[in-house]
Amino acid sequence: MERIVLEVDEQAGKAYQSLSLAKQRQLLEAVSMLLKKAANDATDAAYKKELDQFGNTALQNGLTEDILNALLKEHD
Where are the domains of the chain? Predict the structure, then answer.
């Protein structure tokens, strides 16, 4: 875990301090996920482009939805 400091308004700070330790942990996990998403949004377009290219190649090589579903069921 890396420690960071966030500045919030007084009302938000008091609301956070009044939460139980379990609720504070849940909130910290949510903030962590939001920060990860924000970082990933910068590369989201490139990632989607790569997925599209991968999908097109798979289709060109004969992968169908039925074959994909059968492969996924094998790994369940």
Answer: 10-74
